[in-house]
Amino acid sequence: MFGYYLELALRSLRRSPGLTALMVLAIGFGVASSMTTWSVFRAVSGDPIPWKSSKLFVPQIDMWGPSARGSDGEPPDALDFADAMALMKAHRASRQSAIYAVSPSVVPAATGAFPLNVSGYGVYNEFFPMLDVPFLYGSGWSAADDASRAAVAVISHTLSQQAFGDGNSVGKTIDIEGRDYRVVGVLADWNPQPIFFDVRDTGGFSGDGPDVFLPFDRAIAVGMPNDGSTNCSVMPAAEGFVGLQQSSCIWIALMVELDDAAAVTGYRQFLDGYAAEQQHAGRFAWTPNNRLRDLPAFLTFEHVVPRDTKVSLLVALGLLIVCLINTVGLLLAKFLRRSGEIGVRRALGAPRAAIYQQFLCEAGVVGAAGGVLGLLLTGVGVAGVGLVLPKRIADLAHIDLSLLALTMLVAILATLLAGLYPTFRASRVQPAWQLKSN
Amino acid sequence: MDILPILSTLRRHKLTSWLLVLEIALTCAIVCNAVFLIGQRLQRMDMPSGVAEHELLQIQVADVTTPSNPYARLAEDVAVLRHVPGVLSVASSNQVPFGNSSSNGNIRLDPAQPERTLNATTYFGENLVPTLGTRLVSGRDLQSDDFVDVETAMKGLGNGDSKSLPHVTLITRTLAERLWPGQNPLGRIIYLTPVVGLRVVGVVDSLVRPNAYDTAKAQYTMIVPLRMGASKDQSYLIRTRPEDRASVLAAALAALKKADPQRVVTTQRSFDEVRRRFFQDDRAMAGMLVGVIAALLIVTALGIVGLASFWVAQRRRTIGVRRALGATRGNILHYFQTENFVLATFGIALGMVLAYGINLFLMSHYELPRLPGAYFPVGAVLLWLIGQVAVLGPALRAAAVPPVVATRSV
Question: Are residues A400 and A253 part of one domain?
Fold first, then answer.
C-alpha cells in the first residue's frame, strides 16, 4: 500500500511542479539557514571538555576589596601570586593547577636556525591528567619534577617537528630562553576551543594551540615573565617580574577538579575559611567575597560566547518557523484543492485512515525532498561561513553526523506536522457533498 | 478599488489568509530586530579611534636575551626607525588603539575616596600625540622633561619619593567631560593611587582605548609620561604617508633586523589591519544576520508567490466571469495587488507588535538597547515592497485570463 501511496504522491507533485518546488525550497532554505547558524553557535559555545566540565572549577578570591569592585560586586577573575600559591599549597582539590601564560623563544637544534617565538604556559603536573590532555609521545612530568623545579618541558607536535623534525623527540634537549630543557612529552594535536584554561588572555579563542608547557615553579624561578594580561588595583611597589609576584596584581589562572557535590561544598568552605584567615591576619579588610564557578558558568561569566550569537540563533529559529508556516500554507492550499479526489476515494470505500496515509505520505515526500535540499544547502552554508566569519571560528563550524541526522529529522517532522492539519481537513470532506457538487 | 469584496473573499480563505498574515508578521518582526542588530554592529565598527589610521604602522619585536639597558635599546630603535626614508614620525607605546592588550587604572578625584570614580586606560610613551595624529584641543602636549623612566617611578613608589613619579597627564575630551562636566579640566588632579596625582595639562580630541568593548567607556583614556624600556610588549608606531606604508614597513623591519639580527618580529601590521582584526567578530555577526534576513525575505516572497498562484488558479472561473462582465485587465491586476496590500498591512500591524515584544525579550535577556522607532517603518516598507513584487507574477497571470473562460464548464 505504501508503494502505491508513494506513486500517487509523486504523480500529484508532478502535476504542480511550481508549487512543489516552492515547498521544497522553503523547507530546504529554512532548515539550512537555521542549521548553519546553529552549527556556528554550537562551535563557539561548545563545551570544550564536555565529559568533565562540570567537575572543573575556577576559584575566585577578592584580594582587592570593595574599592575595586564594579557595580556587580564580583571579585577579580584571576589570582595574584600569593593567593594562587597558598591555594596550590593547601591542595584541597583532587587535582589542581595554577596556570600562567609565557612566550619564550626557542632555538631549534639545527645550526643557523633562527629563534622561534612560541606561546605556552607554566603549569603544575596535575594540569595534564586534570584536563585529559592527549599525548602523542611520553607524558607530563611528575610531582617530584614540580618540587625540584626540574628543567623539563612538554611541547606540541608542531614545535617538535620544527625543532627536531619528524619522530619521537622525548628525551631530547630543547633550548628555551637560552636554557636547556628535557622534553618529557609531545602533545597530540590539542587545541581546545574555547581555550578554556586561559580565557582572560585569549578571549576564549586563539588560532594555534599552545606550543610549550613548563613546570610553573621552574618558569617563575628562571624569571620567565608573564605573557598574559595583568590587572592591578594598586601599582606594584617593586618593578619587574619579581615586583609582580609581590604585588596584588592578578595574572594567574587557577583550575581545580572537584569530583562531587560534597567536594564542592568543602572547597567553598575552604575558600571562605582562607579569606577569613586573611581578614584575621589583616591582609583583607573586608568580609570574604569568593566565587567558585564550574567551567561552563565561568565561560558564561567571562562572556566567552558573544551574546549576539545567541540572538542570531533566535533569528535563525524564527526563519525556520516562518518556513514551516509557509509550508503549512502551501500544503493546505494544495490538499484542500483535492476535495474532489478525496470524495471519490471515500465514496469508493476508503476509510479516513487511508486518506491520512496517502496525504501524510505526500507531505513526507515533500519533507524528505526539502530535507535533502536543506542538507545540501547546510553543507554549502557551513562551508561558506568562512567567507563572513573569522577563520578561527569558521574552522570550528563543521557538519557532523548528529547535525546531519537532526537536519533530516527536523525537515521531515516539520512537514509531517505541516501536513497534518490539511490532511485532517481533507479527510473530513463529506463524500456525498463533494460528488454532488461535481 | 473597493476593499469590501476583497475582505469578503479573504473571509472564505480564513486559514490560508491568516497563515500568510502570520508569516508576514513574523518576518516583519524578525527583520526589524535583525536590521537593528546589524545597525548596532555597523555603528560599533565605525567607532572613531581619534588617530590617523591610514598613516600608521605597528611593529613589535622580541629579544631572545633581555638587553642590558632596555631604555637605551628603545632609544636606539626609535632613532633607527626615524632614519628610515618615508618615516614622518616614530613613537613607542605600551599599547595601541584597538590593539586589545591594555594597561588600565582605577582613577579617583580625591585620594581618600573609597570607591574608584572610573576605570581608564593609560598610554605610556614618548611622542605619541604627533605620531598618532590625535588633535590637542586645549593645554599643551607632554614634554620630554615630564617623562620619568618606569624603573625610577617604581622605585619612587616604593620609597615614597614623589619627585621621581610622573606629575602630569593628557586626557581625552570625553574623559574630561565625564569627570568635570562643563568645567575646565586643565590644572585638575587625577589620582591613580593615593600618592600618584597627575595634573591635567592638556586635552586631546579623541583617543580610543585598546579594549574598546563598551562604547560608552571607549574614550576613557589618559596618556601618562612614563618612559618604558624595549620589550616585546612595547610597540613601535610609525607614521608615514598612506601610499608609502608597505615600502616603509619593509624598510623599517630591515633596519631593525640590521640593528640586531637575533631578534624576532612578533607583530608587523598597518592600522587598517588592527581595526579589521579588532572588529572581525562584529563584521562576522553582521554578515551572518544579513544572510539570514535575505533568506527570510526570499522565503516569505516564495510563500506569497505560492499562495497567490494558488488563489489565482482557484478563481480562474470567477475572473473569467468578471472579465466577461466588463472588468479590464487592469481591474483584475489591481484586485490581486490590493488583496496582497491588505494582507501585508494586517501582517505588518501584527508584526510591529511582535517586533516590540521580541525587543522587550532581547532587552531583558541579552542586554540589548531599546529598538528605536525608526526601524518600524523600515520593516513595513520592506514587506510592502516584497509583497507587491511577489504578487506581480501571479496577478499578471490572473489579468491574462481570457473572458471566454466564463463560458466553459468546470
Answer: no
